[in-house]
Write a structure and sequence with these properties.
The chain has four helices and twelve strands; from the N terminus they run βββαβαββαβαβββββ. With 163 residues, it is α/β, with parallel strands linked by helices. The two termini are 14 Å apart.
Length: 163
């Protein structure tokens, strides 16, 4: 399974259930990586999308503790075990965990590749991604040149679990 995330220099990923910043090239990379694939997310992440609707041209799987939660065009699971059973139906390399913070933390042990857009700025935030740079089981295997969006510098970094 893959993880895909945009994080600031303190590994912050969001505030008030919103992204910290919207960078067009990051959005484009996200679309290219996940279109036609499976995206796994928590309920609050789904509800943060336009009209609270699942992402188009993807299989959307929502992990929520709410047993009565239903949403059109999404698969709802209630436990990590149920989720792991559901994603067995798909090639592992086509499954992307897309957040939020609690889902990232729960699924990180099951992921082998993390696509991180690292933003060289510190934002005010209330949700964070685990710091992969401090985890010996993760290593950087690819990194783009530094990119700029207005005055914001960022790069695309690929981390892989050390086998």
């Amino acid at each position: 399974m893959n993880i895909i995330v945009a994080a600031d220099k303190n590994w912050a990923i969001g505030k008030d259930n919103k992204l910290l910043v919207s960078i067009p090239a990051d959005m484009k990379m996200f679309r290219q990586e996940t279109t036609g694939k499976v995206v796994v997310m928590g309920r609050k992440t789904l509800e943060s999308f336009p009209n609270g609707l699942p992402l188009k041209n993807r299989t959307n799987i929502v992990l929520t503790g709410n047993k009565n939660y239903k949403v059109k065009d999404a698969i709802i699971v209630h436990t990590i075990e149920e989720l792991l059973e559901e994603i067995k139906k798909y090639p592992s390399e086509e499954v992307y965990c897309i957040g939020g913070d609690s889902v990232y933390k729960q699924l990180l042990p099951y992921c082998d590749i993390a696509h991180v857009t690292k933003i060289d700025f510190g934002y005010e935030a209330d949700s964070y991604f685990p710091n992969l740079d401090e985890m010996p089981e993760w290593e950087i295997t690819a990194e783009s040149d530094e990119q700029t969006y207005f005055d914001l510098e960022y790069s695309f970094v690929k981390y892989e679990r050390v086998k």
